[in-house]
Design goal:
By secondary structure, the chain is an alpha+beta fold. It is 62% helix and 9% strand. A four-stranded antiparallel beta sheet has the order 1-2-4-3. α2 crosses α3 and α5 runs antiparallel to α6. The chain is rod-shaped.
Length: 175
């Protein structure tokens, strides 16, 4: 499966990258309730920093961003129950709970997607810092250029005003 397909299912919530239970179930090709039952049977493996249930407000905010009710007819979800959100560590822990070949294959792909997103974020932050450094370095130089341009414009305006205020001299035609 392509990393982009998985990355589109990774969201940011509570300052963490997460995947929702029904997205994981679709990736693992199992029903959401089957995935959640396996997790509940092994609840000690999933502390709150690995997995948490979305609040009703978080769920409604996320639902307003995308259509959950039916994506290709695969997802059937009770919209009154909020989904579980799995962090990268929670997804890794799923490998010990779901032991099928498909689950192992998907776990590897999902962890790689999380790593790729983290690397992209680091690259983005580095680029942002470099742009800020360039901006601060050249802002001073451009400030001088703007001052000169402003001076020339003011000088031109003053010259024009002086010219209009001058008394015209020269030959005057008799009336």
């Amino acid at each position: 499966m392509e990393l982009q397909t998985i990355q589109h299912r990774i969201y940011e919530l509570r300052g963490q990258k997460i995947i929702l239970d029904f997205d994981l179930a679709a990736l693992y090709e199992v029903e959401t309730r089957v995935l959640n039952q396996a997790v509940k049977r092994n609840s000690k493996r999933f502390p709150p920093r690995f997995m948490f249930r979305l609040s009703l407000k978080e769920w409604n905010d996320m639902r307003s961003q995308f259509v959950i009710a039916s994506v290709s007819g695969q997802i059937k979800r009770n919209t009154h129950v909020t989904p579980f959100a799995f962090t990268e560590h929670g997804v890794t822990m799923l490998a010990s709970v779901l032991r099928s070949d498909k689950a192992i294959e998907m776990n590897i792909a999902i962890v790689e997607a999380f790593i790729a997103l983290r690397e992209l974020t680091v690259d983005y932050l580095e680029l942002t810092e470099k742009l800020k450094a360039i901006e601060s370095k050249y802002d001073k130089q451009f400030e001088d250029v703007y001052d000169v341009i402003d001076y020339l414009i003011r000088k031109e305006k003053l010259a024009l005003i002086e010219q209009l205020d001058r008394v015209q001299i020269g030959f005057k035609q008799p009336d």
